[in-house]
Amino acid sequence: MWSPQAAYGIRNPQAPDADMPRGSVDPRTGGTLFAHLADVRWAWARCDLSTEERRSLFLRYGLDWPDPAIAAEDGVTDRAVRYRIERGVGKLAAWLNGAEYIDGYDEELEQSA
């Protein structure tokens, strides 16, 4: 997602094997992988994510670090890392859906007060 060349190495599961003869292509049966990559890249560039959320999302999903390693690197608890990741994914999903992000943690804090 973070590398512009990443899609070039991904095989389209709908594509025929390289040794198969060429035929007509039905665009309705094509995969949506490249469209998803474009959408997520667009959201990443424009979504209102905090620096901590961006960092946690990148370390978790870009570099495949486990939560405890991210927590140790950032000097926070595992729970804080999970919160950042969940909130970041929620913001990205809301942005992609054209909806306002509603933080479920804010509601929990209000109810416990």
Structure, explained:
- By secondary structure, the protein is mainly α.
- The protein has one domain (6-14, 32-112): Arc Repressor Mutant, subunit A.
- The chain has helices spanning 33-46, 51-62, 67-74, 78-97, 104-112.
- It is elongated and about 55 Å long.
Q: Any key phrases for this structure?
A:
mainly alpha, elongated, about 55% helix, about 110 residues, disordered C terminus, Arc Repressor Mutant, subunit A
CATH architecture: Orthogonal Bundle
CATH level-four homologous superfamily name: Winged helix-like DNA-binding domain superfamily/Winged helix DNA-binding domain
Q: So how many helices?
A: 5
Mean pLDDT across residues: 81
Helix and strand succession?
Answer: HHHHH
